[in-house]
Design goal:
Elements lengths: L3 E5 L3 H12 L3 E6 L15 E2 L10 H19 L4 E2 L3 E5 L5 H13 L4 E4 L1 H7 L7 E5 L3 E3 L1 H14 L3 E4 L3 E6 L4 E5 L2 E5 L1 E4 L5 H7 L7 E12 L10 E4 L11 E4 L5 E4 L3 E2 L13 H8 L2 H9 L1 H12 L1 H9 L10 E13 L10 E5 L2 E6 L4 H19 L1
Parallel strand pairs: 1-2, 1-13, 2-9, 5-15, 13-21
Antiparallel strand pairs: 3-8, 4-8, 5-7, 6-7, 10-11, 11-12, 14-17, 14-18, 14-19, 15-16, 16-17, 20-21
Helix pairs in contact: 1-5, 1-11, 2-11, 9-10
């Protein structure tokens, strides 16, 4: 095992790797530029413990999500973190969606999820207010607070001797004869190995380290609403639409959270700042990086209609509510209130194709996790196991 390691990024993935490596005897320094952990993607998601019906069998996402579902539930149970496994419905709202629902069922079974196709009547047994012509019932889908999981991982990593530095913004990375030097706002850290878990900034960290990233991160903002308290009874668990197979997003869905609230969303619009959570947030460098990237321009040209609909829904509560009403017709504009937003770090290749699987790019004494969107939180403990296992074999 490597004796000295620097991890960049204090989201759930960086913390999971820091915890595992420090537990196995490495001297770990983790650098997080914000003043708290789980500040970005980890702390702004739906809290779903995914079960794996969406991912191509044999892919890293499929393999690590299935095992991650079990290990995340076990972790939460062991450390007293509240969780639930209510299962979810993926509902077809028209006959033309039924073939795609069948494909999801086949994938779910291939990936080890407990799932079955059910009719509209049985779907209403689970969700009395749902509208569907058929549904996929996924029994093993759960919910948890990933920010709380992250804080526990930080506590465990520190107990194993890891040094976790907040407010440590990285501004230079240099390879040396014996390893890697990382200059940050609080000093310089020298180590034998660098692991980049910087999420929204992962491609920039990789470039700073001298790597040519095979993708570019394009940020998409997902906006959430939640049901007003008096209407929470409309949803018992998790209700998802059948996703568009051409896009990486799962569509606007309804999720009963650990605290009893019911979140609705997210939509998906291009964010004009990688860490800008408001619809008026703007960063010139981030915007230029996105719209000047040939891969994004190719993607956008193929999805003009979809993109326009997402933008319209971003500014219209009525349209957002109408999307929810496809799943639960009783939901209207007066039943929802805004509930924040998140930013998805979407990896796009130069040819405009979306990176479907997790991407882990290697260089000498460096590991860069360049694409880790959903189900990365679900899979975080298994991604850590996978990365550390590779290091044990190769270093």
């Amino acid at each position: 095992m490597v004796s000295r390691v620097t991890v960049i990024g204090g989201g759930i993935l960086g913390l999971a790797i820091a915890e595992r490596m420090s537990r196995q005897g490495s001297a770990v320094t983790l650098l997080e530029k914000e003043d708290h952990f789980a500040a970005h993607q980890t702390g702004h998601n739906s809290g779903v413990i995914h079960a794996g019906p969406y991912y191509a069998p044999g892919s890293l996402k499929a393999r690590l999500c299935t095992t991650g579902n079990r290990s995340m539930i076990a972790f939460a149970r062991e450390h007293g973190i509240p969780f639930d496994v209510p299962g979810k419905l993926i509902v077809a709202t028209s006959v033309k969606e039924l073939p795609r629902l069948t494909v999801l069922h086949e994938r779910a079974l291939a990936n080890g999820a407990v799932a079955r196709l059910i009719g509209a009547s049985e779907a209403r047994d689970y969700e009395p207010n749902v509208s569907s012509v058929g549904a996929l019932r996924v029994e093993t889908t759960g919910i948890v607070d990933y920010a709380r999981v992250s804080r526990m991982l930080a506590e465990l990593a520190r107990s194993h001797g890891a040094e976790l530095l907040l407010g440590a913004s990285v501004h230079d990375i240099r390879t040396t004869t014996h390893g890697v030097e990382v200059a940050h706002s609080g000093g310089i850290v020298s180590s034998e190995l660098l692991i980049n878990c910087a999420g929204l900034q992962s491609d920039r960290i990789a470039a700073l380290a001298g790597l040519s990233p095979e993708i570019r991160i394009i940020p998409f903002r997902g906006e959430y609403y939640e049901l007003v308290e008096s209407r929470r009874s409309l949803v018992r668990g998790l209700i998802y639409p059948v996703p568009d197979p051409a896009l990486p997003f799962l569509g606007v869905h309804l999720t009963r959270m650990i605290d009893g609230s019911v979140h609705a969303g997210p939509n998906a619009v291009l964010a004009l700042a990688r860490e800008g959570y408001g619809n008026r947030s703007f960063n010139l460098r981030d915007t230029a990086s996105s719209i000047g990237y040939p891969g994004f321009l190719r993607l956008a040209s193929r999805n003009i209609g979809t993109g326009a609909k997402e933008i319209m829904r971003s500014f219209s509560k009525r349209l957002f509510a109408a999307s929810l009403a496809r799943l639960v017709p009783a939901i209207g504009p007066d039943d929802i209130v805004r509930a924040g937003s998140g930013i998805r770090a979407q990896a796009i290749r130069p040819d405009g194709t979306l990176a479907d699987d997790f991407i882990i790019q290697r260089a000498h004494r460096q590991v860069h996790i360049l694409n880790a969107p959903s189900p990365a939180a679900t899979s975080s403990l298994e991604i850590a196991r996978y990365v550390v296992g590779q290091l044990a074999d190769e270093l």
